[in-house]
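Budget justification, computational time. The allocation requested in the original proposal was used primarily to generate structure tokens for proteins on the priority list. As evidence of use, we reproduce two of the resulting records. The first is shown immediately below.
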Amino acid sequence: MANDGAMCETKCRYDVFLSFRGEDTRYTFTCHLYHALCRKGIITFMDDGELKLGDQIGSTLLRAIEESSISIVLLSENYSDSSWCLDEHVKILECKESKNQLVWRIFYKVNPSDVRHQNGSYGEAMTRHEKRFGKDSKKVLQWRSTLNVIVNMTGEHLKSEQG
């Protein structure tokens, strides 16, 4: 995959950055997507799952986002439970604006309306974050805003096999 100089100030290290909730999709959809991209010669960053509970998003992940041409955000049922995922999400949208990074989102077994209106698991997660950080905290307001932005981006909606 060719790197466009407009996307990265220098040559991008990765073609694709995968943002996902590990417990939901690491060993299923995300793993298959990662291997399919790699088989096509697409240099893809997928975190190794070594972040510990309570850690903040690491500089390695932030740098990988910045050094990618494209970010794929895999919105699954428990994505918004993770402050790491939400922080990645904010960084991805910052890179979209500042570096013209392409962003593609996938709804995986989650209703896009639940993300848009922050209902269901997304509403429950945001309520927990409000209790932890404060309802009007800059962090929570930013997370809510970026979730609303990504709903309107180009991407896919993959429903469960049952329906």
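The second record produced under the same allocation is shown here.
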Amino acid sequence: MTTELLQIHPSELRFVFELKKQSSCLIQLGNKIDQYIAFKVKTTSPKKYCVRPNIGVIKPNEKCDFTVTMQAQRTAPPDMNCKDKFLIISTVVPFGITEDDITSDMFAKDTGKYIEEKKLKVVLISPPSSPVLLPVNGDVKQDQSNQINGLKDRVLSGIENIPPPLRVSAEVKGLEPALDTREDKTDVDFVLSHAENVGDMNPAKDDVQLNLAKGCEELESRLCMMDSKLREVRAPEFRLSIMNAEVTMMKLNEEKRANIKEKDLLKNELEVLKRKRNAKVQAGFPLLFVCMVAMVGVAVGYYLHP
């Protein structure tokens, strides 16, 4: 075959590489012919990547996606150059076949079928740099600092713009400014302590969000590993069931042939018995014929010797 079976997009796997973080890449396969196509995905580093699904069937002129997840890495490759490769194997399969019917023998080259292989390389991309540690957290921290500064400015401006006390007696005139200043100072201390408490709560929230993100990543990696193990376990069981079915079919065919032979032998024996019976009947004379001959002989003798 000269025509291509699959259209692959994109033509390479791009991962945003960050230490101790997972990264995923989506690949889309398109069926370019009017027949069913089965595909299988292989990699040079199966422990480093999780492919879901790694096998599948694509109907005519339809598309199918699979996700490749790179596990969290502790060290970065030199110059961000990754030598890992992926191989997508595809072949034409009969109409109506499903994922459960796929076996490794379908992709064997010694069967004489057309097997198409396409290699994809892995490209690592550095994460986008930002002036703050994290964009979301940075915005939150920046907004909170602005709020705190605003509160400080408001409080200080309120202290500076304290209206002058009313003209009363000299005793009261000496007490009122001191009381107002103390009250304003206590307000400033309360606002500043409240702002500091709010600022201290943000790292705790960030830690909780980071722990949740790590937990989700670990759970996803475990699901990928369980899925791959389940597929590896299902393949031998499926082959064993096929072998058992083939053995059962062979036994049934042998029993059918034996029954046909016995039936033919019985037919032959029945025909032989029928022939023997007919031969015995033809060897003797019928009783009626004998009686007639005897009566004719008696009559002739009576007329000859009166």
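A brief technical remark on that second record: Helices lie at 135-160, 170-283, 287-304.
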